[in-house]
Amino acid sequence: MRRYALWLGLVCTTGCAALSRDLGAVPDPETGKYELPKEETVYLAPVEEAMMLAGRILQEQRYDVMEREGGLELFTSAHEPGKNEPGARAFERYYIKGERVAPRQSIVRVFRLRYHEMEDTVEVPVRAAGSRAGEVNAANAIHPFDANKTFKTASTLEGADLTDLDDPFQNAPELERFRFVRGIRDLGIERTLLERLEMVPSLELVGGNTSVPARSVVLEGWTEAVDGAQAPVAECGTPVDGAAPLMAKGHTLLLADPLGTRELPSAALRMLCEASSKGLPVTLALSLPSTEQPLLDTYMASAGSSQDAQELLSGSSFWRRVHQDGRSSRAMLWLVEQARRLRTSGRAVSLVAFDAEKTSGNEREEHMARHLLEYRKQHPDAWLLVLAGGAHVRTTSAGRDGDFEPLGMRLARALPSVKALDVGFQRGTQFSCRYSVWEDVECNLFAISPTDAARQFSTMPSGVTLFPQPIEEGFHGRLYVGELSASPPALQASATASSAAPGAAK
Q1: 105 pairs with which residues across the strands?
Q2: From the CB of residue 226, how many other CB atoms can be counted at a distance below 10 Å?
Q3: 113 and 239 both lie in a single domain
Q4: Nearest one of 152, 169, 170, 149 to 161, comparing CA atoms
Q5: Integer CA distances (angstroms), 193 to 26, 141, 160, 189, 450, in order
Q6: In 3D, which of 145, 126, 122 has the Cα closest to residue 135?
């Protein structure tokens, strides 16, 4: 995911740009000290997409962006910060260099270039008295980056000896007309690019066609009882630190899920194991369509063989969608199997699907909440663990537009015992559906970076940290899970990305 590199060096355009150590240093979010980064970010995106997005960021800052042939170099228009007299002016512009590491891996370096007229002056000839006014007027008439005008080369500054220069970059006007240029790595722009590429909401695709075949389904790590041998047990692992206080009869815990990762289903299983070991009746609620419940009930009562899994998937319209999001990941199917094993071992473990199939917005949130509240009425003593996307489990509408009321807000209004956990993590990968730079829906493996609030530092242990009081979004604490790793769909078509994907719901 990252390429190690020294950040001191030179960047060359038509002149040379020296990268300053002091100006290149940025505050380390973990220590607060200004340090030079020791790693280079490799984006999990085609370089063309990353470069297009970098250009769009600068255009939003009112720069004109020009592309060199091949698309891996961009220049912006120049501006003069402040106002100085000709001969003492400084101009700034951006230079963006893209590097293709692999078809879906890229590096984008953004440099802020600064040009000083005084540094290009080799010799100032003797001037005639009173010539300064004409000199200023002549200099003001010529923008130093305008390739359509002439460049002053003569010793006289009265316009007598002006010569045209060949444009050093064809089809890209307003480029270098100074000999020296100083450049620094603009890590602020690169940070914005990282946010646009990796801190975006996942899409949950509702509806869509069913055509993915379910043939010879064998899950990763799948084991079956053979010749009367003891049935495989759940892969519980160690309890989640700090989660025990949230486990009580009749309580509900909402767990935000970065869709398409392995870490959240794993943490959910460990919580199920601990709660059920205390003798609590436990229910795992997953954001699968409620129409899948009969198939899930049949599977939960089965021996969990490969044939049983194949029947579950073959009869499902959800797991076999052509365009799948992280809700139908291998890790999610693995979690279903682990819940079945817990139940087979004698634990009081149930599974409920509560999502809607073809609705979105408040209609979908209302369906999910109603389904879970009806289940709660029928099972008042169960400890209910709800696993859904972060936009659904928040218990307030903070940060959402209009009158949107998420699932968590509706549950908290009806059930005072509801608690919601956000997720903290380190940069990693996920399988998800997102809008591309061309506004198409693409389902693929992407990199995912945490916000500053959700960042898990290297010194932070994994586990649950409760807040003194709920934060604005209504989360009562945060579950730290470390570096995320992607979990692709349990069943995949030959192509998972298409601009003709079905309806997308955040």
Answers
A1: 102
A2: 6
A3: no
A4: 152
A5: 16, 37, 47, 6, 14
A6: 126
Residue 385, pLDDT score: 98
User: Which range, of 90-104, 331-345, 359-373, 399-413, averages the lowest pLDDT?
Assistant: 399-413
Phi, psi of 91 (to 5 degrees): -130, 150
Range of the domain at 125: 2-198
Report yes or no: 196 and 108 within 8 Å, Cβ to Cβ.
no
Alpha-carbon span 54 to 106, nearest angstrom: 12
* 3 state SS of 149: coil
Between residues 85 and 439, the one the model is more confident about: 439
Using the predicted structure, report yes or no on whether residue 304 has a pLDDT greater than 60. yes
Q: Where are the beta strands (DSSP E) in 13-104?
A: 16-18, 26-27, 34-35, 39-41, 65-67, 73-76, 90-102
My answer on whether 41 and 81 are in the same domain is yes
Same domain, 49 and 155: yes
The total number of structural domains in the chain stands at 2
User: Residues 264, 394: one domain?
Assistant: yes
Q: Residue 258 is which amino acid? A: P
- In terms of domains, do 133 and 218 share one? no
Q: Is 171 left (phi over 0), alpha (psi -120 to 50) or beta?
A: left
Look at residues 436, 349, 359, 417 and name the one whose alpha carbon lies nearest to residue 392: 359
Indicate if 178 and 238 belong to the same structural domain.
no
Q: Is the pLDDT of residue 36 over 90?
A: no
Here the tokens at position 382 are: 């169960």
Per-residue b/e over 470-505, b at no fewer than 16 CB within 10 Å? bbebbbbbbbbbeebebbbbbbebeebeeeebbebb
Contact of 469 with 419, CB cutoff 8 Å? no
Same domain, 238 and 274: yes
The three-state secondary structure class of 68 is coil
> Which secondary-structure segment (H or E) carries 147?
none
Helices (H), 315-405: 330-344, 361-378, 390-393
Q: Are residues 411 and 426 in the same domain?
A: yes
